[in-house]
Give the backbone structure.
Amino acid sequence: MATEPHEPTTGNGAQGHHPRLELDEAIHQPVRLSIMSILAQARKVDFAFLRDYLELGDSNLSRHLTGLESIGYIVIDKVFEGKRPRTWVSLSPRGREAFNNHVRLLRQIVDHPMDNLK
Amino acid sequence: MEVDPKEAAESLKVIEQAQQVVSRHSHNNGVIPLVWGIVVLFALPLYDLLSSSIASIVFCIIVSMTVFWNVLYALRIPIQPRQWKYKGPFLFLWWGIYYVVVLIGGIYGLQWFFHGRPPFMFTTIAFFAAAPLLYVGLRLWWQAQRREV
């Protein structure tokens, strides 16, 4: 897991790489892809919802979120709503850019499957 | 990273399913307009069934309870969507004008037309007042439920 700010791949083929080689490893792992997919559609998401939906334990989800936070893809906001503590998770602009790029690359791979034979 | 087209397609499916999950568990799931539509549909006809004073008391109790439920529901909802469907200045203005026309125009217009209060006047108004809320609510609810996750 990366601990320094992660540089999202551009995926524009400027370096001549095939899309599959430019996929973001930090996102592609299934649990992280699910997390990023939900966050990409939302302004913010409750930690407890993510935990229940993904059927993960608190610590396991925290580990994934901390990993994504450490590379600057998500923002974790712990607040009190009344007396109730609540943790909101949202996508950072950097994370949104990386996610959009990742989706674009996946579509390229699906739309041009023969290119994978190269 | 090596990803074949099949794996990429499965990843895209996960992303598509996530979009559905967000719709289902956010304000865009249509529950709030559906509930308000049902409240309007069943609360306004009370004025046709009961005396005005009793109907007003019951109507206020029902609306207060719905407002209370609405606040609690909005606070507990786990996902805040990026975009709220059926919101915006133009739509807000449209809703406002529609309700002025339906409620005030309906009450005074029908009484003027029938030279008095016609039977089921408030039931008719309730139907027209609830129709857009039920339409929007059902449409959003259907969009949020249409695919299994």
